[in-house]
Design a protein that fits this description.
about 425 residues, 3 domains, five-stranded mixed sheet, disordered N terminus, disordered C terminus
Length: about 425
């Protein structure tokens, strides 16, 4: 069992507990504001780009949500974050003789980069893994462990450890003045990725291909009508046709909500359980997971995600759970992390194939892998595939959920359910 990351604090809380309190406070503020105007998007346009560190690595789903909410709250313009040490490191370069002051191309010492006085960091959580051979006590990297065969993995003990890091947005530093060109490059990238057709309706080629070529884990059926839902018993997603929505962004974000539900089927991430009836606390929580999953994946592609009208009815329930249950925020955000990764891994696999071989590419291997839930995806036929994160491994649970969950489209007042 991993140990909590304790620090010497006057309040007696561990770093993990303090981070979770920060996460809960941000979510409470956001949902409270959305109660006043539920037509606002989950993430505002300036925070729609997924946050990254200075090396360009994206933060995971849970940390992404927290950092985007904080960026929106503070009005930061960039989506890049760094620890105190990483920011201080911008003032030096390393060589064989040690560290020397950073200089420009003419050899002049660059202005000092520092965090602005009074600025406070935002906590992020990272789980690291120690992999130790049970006999030899040899340690290997987790990335190397994932490449081992099942028999070889059995020889190792894997110890997870949750660590909390404190990061600053670049707008909390003087980078704008000290390194204007670097700051501008990060500012430019914060506009996000946009897919737009000549007619002005946003297009999402990878998602369009998933629909037309049946590449998701279950069929997606655009149908003339007003209902958007995922049926557990039939394992199918039904959505209104794209032309029925005011824009492509609304169509895709509503579809991603239902894809989020589908990721939780018993044969996949196993969130959907018997007894999650309409109006129950478990049902309301699943709605929040689907909403945040859709918002996070939408943000990855530069789109906004507005609260579905039927989901708006759960705002009070979400607030009550955040106030009453200390574990609610952690368990919910972890499920959002798994669900968003589940979807984005599959979208990325389709997108890579489209970029390399075009619309008429052979997707048969991707289709087969998704339908059988093989946790790997190939960027092109007959080549080594990319392994999905281990936290997406399906739990082996034979519980069968006979209930059909349906979530209504945004213009429908009441959702419909069938057993």
């Amino acid at each position: 069992m991993s140990k909590k990351n304790y620090a010497s604090n006057a309040d007696g809380l561990s770093a993990e507990d303090r981070a979770l309190n920060t996460f809960a406070d941000l979510m409470i503020d956001k949902i409270t504001n959305m109660q006043q105007d539920w037509k606002k998007p989950w993430f505002s346009p300036q925070s729609v780009q997924l946050p990254r560190n200075l090396n360009g690595r994206f933060y995971n789903g849970m940390n992404s949500i927290v950092l985007m909410l904080m960026q929106e709250k503070k009005g930061w313009q960039t989506s890049r974050y760094a620890t105190f040490d990483r920011i201080a490191g911008l003032n030096f370069t390393k060589n064989k003789d040690g560290k020397t002051a950073a200089v420009d191309k003419d050899g002049n010492k660059l202005p000092h980069v520092s965090i602005l006085k009074g600025e406070k960091s935002t906590p992020v959580m990272l789980t690291t893994f120690s992999c130790v051979n049970a006999e030899t006590k040899e340690r290997i990297k987790y990335d190397d462990y994932k490449l081992l065969s099942e028999a070889e993995r059995a020889k190792y003990h894997v110890y997870p450890k949750l660590q909390v890091y404190n990061v600053f947005n670049l707008d909390q530093t003087n980078l704008r003045e000290s390194r204007p060109e670097m700051y501008q490059s990060y500012l430019d990238e914060a506009e996000g990725r946009k897919f737009e057709s000549a007619e002005g309706m946003k297009d999402f080629p990878a998602l369009d291909a998933m629909i037309e070529k049946d590449l998701y884990v279950c069929p997606i059926k655009p149908t003339r009508g007003d209902d958007a839902y995922y049926s557990v018993s039939k394992d199918v997603i039904v959505v209104p046709e794209k032309a029925q929505f005011i824009d492509g962004e609304s169509f895709y974000s509503n579809l991603l909500h239902e894809m989020g539900h589908a990721s939780g089927a018993p044969s996949r991430l196993d969130r959907l359980k018997p007894g999650q009836s309409f109006g129950s606390a478990a049902y309301a929580r699943e709605e929040l997971v689907a909403e945040l999953t859709a918002a996070l994946v939408s943000s990855q592609y530069g789109m906004e995600k507005h609260v579905k009208s039927d989901s708006a009815a759960y705002l009070k329930s979400w607030l009550d759970s955040l106030h009453e249950d200390p574990t609610f925020i952690k368990s919910t955000l972890l499920d959002v992390k798994r669900a968003s990764s589940f979807i984005s891994q599959r979208l990325d696999a389709v997108n890579v194939r489209l970029e390399r071989y075009g619309w008429d590419a052979d997707f048969s291997d991707i289709r087969k892998q998704n339908k059988t839930f093989t946790p790997s995806f190939s960027s092109k036929p007959s080549q080594q595939s990319t392994t999905v994160a281990s936290d997406q491994t399906v739990k082996e649970d034979n519980v069968k959920n006979e209930q059909t969950e349906q979530v209504a489209a945004k213009n429908i007042n009441q959702p419909r359910f069938h057993r």
